[in-house]
């Protein structure tokens, strides 16, 4: 097993309330996890901490064998870890421009941006929507754009916050179908969810949050 991320002594407080106290949290390279637990137990908060959107304390953190702080959140992690919100926020431009945005920010050459965006739209089955303004998209289409926008960056770790919440029927099926091919070779994914079908996907390890602590299944 190759460790991608290891955090020892992770603590998250909101005021006087200690929400999370994890002795050790390990994410292996190339592994997929579902994070379950009761409403309000802290699943989104844990993903947001890992994605650098919420501060927390850690006694020790190692990412690809490199010791780093958790707070302030290092740029080295920001490039390699991508968080996908359950209600993704889109720029009011086209689908293609939304997917290209992060690659342009990373100053990738134009041809490379074009190739990757085309590949990502084809992967998410949204090529027909390339010129559509994002305001016109359905919830399921938005989620697929958000997944393509995250995948195109080729992160080492993808964090999905309830990717199928609020979706049903075909929209949910379409998002579910993308999950097994979501990561590029060697990347890892952690999904917070209540969706039984996602929890039951083959090859996915289960992690449960309970009273601020982690149970690996
Ligand atoms: N900024 C904040 N300030 C204070 N409390 C917060 C803040 N953000 C989240 N919380 C609290 O932390 C707890 C965990 O919230 P979180 O959204 O992480 O839970 P969750 O496990 O993802 O829940 P759900 O399954 O309902 O989405 C909740 O009680 C929430 O009210």
What does this molecule look like?
The protein has 217 residues and is α/β, with parallel strands linked by helices. Helices cover 30% and strands 28% of the residues. The chain is built from seven helices and ten strands. It has helices at residues 43-50, 75-80, 95-105, 110-123, 139-151, 169-178, 196-199, and strands at residues 3-14, 17-28, 32-36, 60-63, 66-67, 81-84, 157-161, 188-192, 204-210, 213-216. Strands 6-7-8-3-9-10 form a six-stranded mixed sheet, with helices on both faces. Strand 7 (157-161), helix 6 (169-178) and strand 8 form a beta-alpha-beta unit. It starts with a strand and ends with a strand. The chain binds adenosine-5'-triphosphate. One of its GO terms (molecular function) is ATP binding. Keywords: ATP-binding, Cell membrane, Membrane, Nucleotide-binding, Transport. It comes from Noviherbaspirillum pedocola. InterPro entries: AAA+_ATPase, ABC_SmlMolc_Importer, ABC_transporter-like_ATP-bd, ABC_transpr_CbiO/EcfA_su, P-loop_NTPase.
Give a brief outline of the structure:
The protein has 217 residues and is an alpha/beta fold. It is built from seven helices and ten strands. The model has no long low-confidence stretch (mean pLDDT 94).
